[in-house]
Amino acid sequence: MKRSERLVAMTHYFLENPKTLSSLPYFVEKYDAAKSSISEDIDIINDMFKKMGIGELHTVAGAAGGVEYIPDLSKEEAESIVTHLITHLEDASRILPGGYVYMSDLLGHPKYVQDIGKVFASAFDHSEVDYIVTVATKGIPLAYAVAQVIGVPVVIIRRDPKVTEGSTVSINYVSGSSRKIQTMVLAKRSIKKDANVLIVDDFMKAGGTIQGMISLMDEFEANVKGIGVLAEAEDEDEERKVQDYISLIKMMEVDEQNQTIKVEKGNYFNS
C-alpha cells in the first residue's frame, strides 16, 4: 500500500472510531508497514486534524498504550455552523400559529444534525462521559449525532413505558410551559450506577423537562456532567429552572404580526 493510500485509510479509521485506543502493532499488521512509517503517518494525520480544527490524535505510552482520536471543533468552525443555522431559522416562512418556529426540517437533515453534534461534542469535556441522555422525540437525532462523535451509547427517556424495555423507573415533573404534571420513564437497565451523562435536547423554555431529566438521573445515581440545548427561548416572564447549561442558538423574538424572527448565537459563544 502506498503512503498516500495508507494515510487515507488511517484517517478514515480514526474518524469512524473516536475515543478508541488502538496500538501501533495493530496498524503495522493491518497496513503491512514498518512501525516507524506508521508513527510518521500518525504525525501527519494529527497535524492535519489540528489545522482543520476537528480534534487531535492522543498517544498513550507503554505496553498497553496506543493512539486514539479525540474529536474537537474549533470555536471558529462552530461559529460558522451556528451562523449558517441562524440564517435558515430567521426565514419568516418558518413562523407557525402561536409564535412557534418550524425546525423539523433541520432536525431531520443529516448534514445539519451531524454538524450540530460536532459542536455539542466540542462544547463539553467528554473524556469521562458514559452516555448521552435525551427525551423522546425531537432530541433523539441530536443525541445520536453527539454520541457518534464521542463514541458512547444513547439513552432515550420516554413519556410512557414500553413492554420491550422491562422494569422501569418513573418520575413526575412540572412542565415549564404548560405547568402540567407529566411523567417520564426509563428502563432500569439503561444506566449503570455512578455513570457520567450528558443531557441533550432540542429546545428549552423554562427548563421543566430538563429538570425532570436531572431528577430522573438522580434516581439512577448518575452524574450529570453537562446539559446542552440546541435552542433556548428568550422569556423574561418565566423563571428558568435550569441555570448551568450550554445553548447553541437563542430565539430572541418571533413576531407573527410583522412576520419576523430574531435569532442570536447561544451562550456557548459568550466565553
Automatic annotation (TrEMBL):
Span of domain Phosphoribosyltransferase: 105-248
Key word Repeat present: no
Organism annotation: Piscibacillus salipiscarius
Leader sequence segment: none
Entry similarity comment: Belongs to the purine/pyrimidine phosphoribosyltransferase family. PurR subfamily.
Residue ranges of domain Bacterial purine repressor N-terminal in the record: 2-71
InterPro entries: PRTase-like (IPR029057), PRTase_dom (IPR000836), Pur/Pyrimidine_PRTase (IPR050118), PuR_N (IPR015265), PurR_Bsub (IPR010078), WH-like_DNA-bd_sf (IPR036388), WH_DNA-bd_sf (IPR036390)
Protein name: Pur operon repressor
TM segment ranges: none
